[in-house]
Specification:
globular; FAD/NAD(P)-binding domain; 18 helices; alpha+beta; 8-stranded mixed sheet
Length: 553
């Protein structure tokens, strides 16, 4: 394509994972594509670059090698039991959910594998639920970590897009911020916006918004793939649902500053319908990044099930709100206590086995595809990034005795809320339950149950032990914050990725994919998610929209 051309077959707004997948599919079909993004070239791939690379797969070879029996029917039951679809506007989200689960149980792994994507052999068990067979959660482990983490997921699509760029089919225009979708006679015919000054700041860091020009582009179709609202705390609070409790006074941010939700209103102004804006996904295990990249940068702990979880006053969270069981259920409970933080209390033995940190930069062994360093995870000692947070993180307290631990915990909060006698009573009662191989403490039962899964026993779940056993020490407490992350609602789309208008009919010339579309349909996760489904939603919806736009262009 002529680099001076302002016309193309398709324009894609956003150079994240969904946009790159759509662009690659369009180029394979011989279509000419312009991809615009407000950020610099250093940010190619968007949020996906920073991810752990977890993907939801069903009945995979990795699962079978770990002794996991999974099926499409079981996965769909888990999905629907978690989503809780209950609104008239959930028609398309449910259709997308059914299609996505079929994709995850069908060609998804083979499609990725053919492009060079491989997976860590041990499958993780996220969102374990704990309510009942049909309630929230994964019945079996389904969280497949990509070899190479987020960059490993991106790599084949960046490669395909760069190859198409060389063939003249794709043009990438960075520092082009879309401010308007052009509508001509009821048809979206292009985009208009501002050219921002060049930026040399590193990936993920805030960039200048100084305008140095403007632009207008026209095309037969436009695909919006601009992400969610996670860095826009005002918009998060504006859409915060009462069912989750009052919006937290303080939140950490799990995504770069550019994830601001601007394009949602811009697409609405062009006739698109936005649904389920009150559905969102935020973590309760956020910690302040001691080496931040973006504003309010938080990292999520990916916990095993053994840490004792306490609210701000030192009260143990109720069943089944154990670490890694129900993200939004825990969020709702904590916010109703009137505080926006909580605590893990654990031992050195637990942190060595059970703490992982979300993000490509926090897992250099997997991200850099170092087999030797990855094998080091089975050796004694916490992973290097975890140990760095333990030593430098503002939220970590390490002590040899419980009184010293408590003093450190109370020193890190505005007021000393935790009573020593009450905390000691809770921990001693919990430890007594380990005097027998059975007991009434359901968290300990869950730990023992988890270790019956081969993957958890090998590298993920510590052998049950008493927290006050000095041989397992030192004691560790971690203050946990609310961490913003994902939009579960979004632009309403049909199964071709076409954005729907107020009448339920497609807006001609307009498609959407990825988080901006609630990963498909305007909210294929419903009220809650099973994890490993966000990157996968970008892959699936980007592929669908790209192929559909190619057929219609």
């Amino acid at each position: 394509m002529n680099n001076t051309s302002n016309t193309a077959d398709v324009i894609i707004v956003g150079a994240g994972l969904a946009g790159l997948v759509a662009a690659a599919e369009l180029a394979d079909a011989g279509r000419r594509v312009i991809v615009v993004d407000q950020e610099s070239e250093q940010n190619l791939g968007g949020q996906a670059f920073w991810s752990f690379g977890g993907l939801f797969l069903v009945d995979s070879p990795e699962q079978r090698r770990m002794g996991v029996r999974d099926s499409h029917d079981l996965a769909l039951a888990d999905w629907l039991g978690t989503a809780g679809f209950d609104r008239p506007e959930d028609h398309w989200p449910r259709k997308w959910a059914e299609a996505y689960v079929a994709f995850a149980a069908g060609e998804k792994r083979a499609w990725l594998h053919a492009q060079g994507v491989h997976f860590f052999p041990i499958v993780g068990w996220a969102e374990r639920g704990g309510y009942g067979a049909y309630g929230h959660g994964n019945s079996v482990p389904r969280f497949h970590v990509t070899w190479g983490t987020g960059p490993g997921v991106l790599e084949p699509f960046v490669r395909r897009v760069r190859a198409a760029e060389q063939r003249g089919l794709i043009e990438l225009r960075f520092r082009h911020r879309v401010d308007e979708l052009i509508v001509t006679g009821g048809i979206v015919t292009g985009v208009r916006g501002a050219v921002l000054e060049p930026s040399a700041v590193g990936r993920g860091r805030p960039s200048s918004r100084t305008i140095v020009g403007d632009f207008a582009l026209t095309a037969g179709a436009t695909i919006v793939t601009s992400g969610g609202i996670g860095a826009n705390h005002d918009l998060v609070r504006q859409n915060w649902p009462p069912r989750l409790g009052a919006p937290p006074a303080r939140m950490l941010t799990g995504v770069p500053d550019y994830v601001d939700g601007r394009i949602l209103a811009i697409t609405e102004a062009a006739g698109g319908t936005l649904i389920n804006s009150d559905r969102m996904w935020h973590y309760t295990e956020g910690i302040e990044n001691w080496r931040p990249i973006w504003g309010g940068h938080g990292i999520r702990i990916l916990p095993g099930p053994s840490s004792l979880w306490l609210d701000a006053r030192g009260q143990r969270l109720p069943v089944p709100l154990f670490p890694g069981f129900d993200t939004l259920g825990t969020l709702t409970y904590l916010l109703r206590t009137g505080y926006d933080y909580s605590w893990f209390v654990l031992t050195q033995r637990i942190i060595e086995r059970e703490f992982a940190l979300s993000g490509s930069e926090q897992n250099p062994d997997l991200t850099n595809k170092s087999l030797l360093r990855t094998l080091g995870r089975v050796l004694p000692g916490a992973p290097g990034p975890v140990d760095a947070f333990k030593k430098r993180g503002a939220d970590f307290v390490v002590a040899r005795t419980l009184p010293d631990l408590l003093r450190g915990m109370n020193a890190r909060t505005d007021e000393p809320l935790i009573d020593h006698a009450a905390l000691e009573r809770e921990i001693v009662a919990r430890d007594r339950q380990l005097d027998n191989p059975f007991g009434k403490d359901l968290q300990i039962s869950a730990i023992r149950g988890a270790r019956r899964y081969r993957g958890d026993r090998l590298i993920r779940v510590a052998k049950p032990h008493k927290l006050l056993d000095p041989r397992a020490g030192p004691l560790i407490a971690v203050r946990l914050h609310i961490l913003t992350r994902k939009t579960l609602g979004g632009l309403q789309t049909d199964l071709s990725g076409r954005v729907l208008g107020a009448t339920g009919q497609p807006v001609p010339g307009l498609y959407a994919a990825g988080e901006v579309a609630g990963f498909g349909g305007g909210g294929m996760h419903g009220y809650s998610a099973l994890e490993g489904t966000f990157l996968g939603g970008c892959l699936f919806s980007g592929r669908v929209a790209g192929r559909a736009a190619a057929a219609g262009a």
